[in-house]
Amino acid sequence: MRPSLSFGLCAALAAFVFLLAVPASLAQQPLKVGIVTFLSGPAAGPFGVPARNAAELTAELLNAGTVPAPYSQKGFGGTPIELVIIDEAGGPQKQVAEYRNLVPRVDIVIGYISSGDCLAIAPVAEEQKKLTVLFDCGTPRIFEDASYKYVFRTGPTGTMDNVSVALYLVERTPNVKSIAGLNQNYAWGQDSWADFENAMKTLKPGIEVKTSQMPKLFAGQFGAEITTLLGSGAEVIHSSMWGGDLEGLVLQGAPRGLFEKHKVVLSAGEPAINRLGTRIPDGTILGARGPFGPFAPGTDLARWLKTTYQDRYHVPPNYASFKMTQAILGVKAAYEKAKGSGNEAPDQDKIIAAFENLTFEGPGGPVKMALGKGHQAIMDAAVGTTRVEGGELKIVDIARYSADKVNPPDGVKSEAWIKSGIKK
Amino acid sequence: MSSILPIAFDGITYASWLFLISAGLTLIYGVMRILNVAHGSLYALGAYAACSLAGAWLGGGLPAAGSFAMLLLAALLVGSVAGPLIERGLLQWMYGKDEVVLVLITYALFLIMEDVIKLVWGVDSLLLPDPYALPGNFQLGGLTYPVYNVLLIALALATGLALAWALYRTRQGKLLLAVIHDRDMSMAMGINVSRVYLATFAVGATLAALGGAFTAPTIAVTPGIGVEVIVLAFAVVVIGGLGSLGGAALGALLVGLVRSATVRYWPEAELFSIYAVMAMVLIARPKGLFAAQEARKI
Lengths: 424, 298
Prior knowledge:
By secondary structure, chain A is of the alpha/beta class. Chain A contains 16 helices and 15 strands. In chain A, strand 4, helix 5 (141-144) and strand 5 (151-153) form a beta-alpha-beta unit. The radius of gyration of chain A is 24 Å and the shape is globular. The radius of gyration of chain B is 19 Å and the shape is globular. Chain B has one domain: ABC transporter involved in vitamin B12 uptake, BtuC (Orthogonal Bundle).
């Protein structure tokens, strides 16, 4: 039986529509991005939830194509992105299991605030061969003790924070003779104090360390530690505390004169300014783990993040929010560089090749993937001092340090670089 | 000499805080034979309720001194609502089960309550610094201390004395001691053990919440504060002897003073100091300082 002409036409039309429809539907398949951040526990309030909010906001506005240049193309290279968000709480062992479950469900993983989690996840990412971008954790050991193909970190290390506050302190109080520390007793607190102590010893040889207090993480109460610091006679007190511990230190220390009798340096204090405001005493030296929050440059991208975040969540974005947006934009930059002008989606190896040694613009300014064989970011650093004016807390006397000045050269370990003189 | 006074004062302040929390824990264990992991959540609930109530009081422009009454009210509210709810709603169906099973049940409850707190109050920290600053400061050994710490010590002393009086000088207290000594015999003698359990759990919950409510002005109230507390409280109760009120007081004092001296002279060992005290006490007295000798039942 011969098929009728109308049947043939219909079949041809259907085939044509099908041919058109297939690439269109494939093009609309979103890229799945796994986001891992604290949604519960003590780190959720200061870091985890602000980072989650920034991820949701950035993904939505990228898909809408309303992010300023050079990120105005929709999604990643025109392909929309879809987030799969999981909780970072539970410790490294649990996170490794969660990561293994997440890997088959997503194309890229962006996440991890805790240095312990980052150290545990990096080798598993390598084993799973999944592009994984660490966005916040600070330990320099990730790329100093190992080499990874699939792991990147778009935020600077903790070394930069502590070297920059030490430089700032010595520039303003060149006759400083003694220091003391109050840091949380785990990797972050210990590494931060070691970097600050070593940097001060390098910059001011012969400086005296009066005491190094290391209370338990999340202890919350520091009565005996504050007593010891007050009685120590140290001119400067360094603390890398964060979250409830930092807020507890300010609430308990300020009424006892800790901030009046000593120059206090809070190397990661920025997230507390939205919570404590004028309760942070005048003259406190403050860092934000990079040029984030009040230290952000006056670029369109920084203004865009500050405005859209404030409008939606009614608080300014803190450094965790900046760093999450920075990580997503970094992956977008690498993806689009790998894709080039072609229509085909780049494979993972092409994205990795494009990401290595990439320089891209983040909301905190230029980000260079300069360390760890092109996998670890460096950025300019910024430090300031608090001042209460007209009932408001302001950050004044802001100093900026170029990325090269506060980061070691590639291949040199942070500790050795600090001890050898903090030279370019 | 100049450092002894500050060390002693810091140690006693810390001990007062520990005692408020440990007293409820040891009381519940003494009577009900439950190692209540959810005690930490009741502490956290007290702190959060205090922030809400005292925050609303201060936010309403009412006299700041009244915020202390709000702290007390928060503890009583948590104790009288959450305590009976947990005991009648869950624990009363579990009596007679192995102690390990009861620990797991209260651990599950602890996890649930942590999430409930997160649902109600969110993940951001709550601050209530006004009652802490209100009474002002005083000088001791050349250092500045908040008067609030003296109030905390007074509160712990008053609570300890009130508990001792209620236990040893009132009829209800003597009935409770009878249940602690021998539950089955007490039932046989006509004591309403179920009611004693309910009252004990409510009092224990109130003590945990009291600790939380009066700690709230000194800290940032954040998710997870109950976890930190329960570990310390267990250490204190084990040092003192499970179920002993006097033991909890002495255990808290020992831990407070040793920790304070360690922070001053050997800060690297601060984390270890509490457990070192516990280990040494248990080597000398495996059941703690004041554990009652149990009669063997045949």
